[in-house]
Model the fold of this input.
Amino acid sequence: MKAAPSPKLWTAASLAGLASALSSGTAEAHLITTGLGPVYDGAAHFALTPEDLIPVIGLAVFAGMRGPAHARWALFALAAFWLVGGSAGLLIARPTNNIAAAMSLLLVGGLVAADAPLPLWATAAVAGLLAAAHGYVDGSALPSDGSGFLMVLGIIAAVFVTFALVAASLLQLRSRLTRIAMRVSGSWIAASGLLLLGWSLRGGL
Done:
């Protein structure tokens, strides 16, 4: 009877799989069509693109750990700056790589893992920076006509709902064990960002 794989092996395999999924998301995520129109296509893009979804969830975890005021400011900063970044991406339409996604994972994962006591304005600034960068990447890969803008609106709607649900659920959980679990999840997010950054810098993406 074979021995079960060690926890370290499982951890390495999981991180490699996550980084692989992140690295392949950019190439195919924008080909998604739901048949329900560009707004729903945008929402589906967000839900099926790990390099967008994971940083937003991570930021929601961080804001939820910091409290209701941080969650509210981060939520509206995300929506506003994703719109700004997405609109700029539609106008400029310059191809991008996955380095921005990797840096977002490192930043958000590091904040969650450290349980960093940021002031309210800094949490909103991090949310705005992340949203502008990801919005630009999304917009630059979308059609530059009206359907592209509607897809950006669909992405923003999905971002808003996802962040609100995750942050609200964490605001109800105040136990020390829950906080430790959230910090561990942040270390995983940061580790996946480090892997993705390394692959990006090596020219593998």
The CA atoms of residues 21 and 38 lie 24 Å apart. Confidence is low (pLDDT under 50) at residues 1-30.
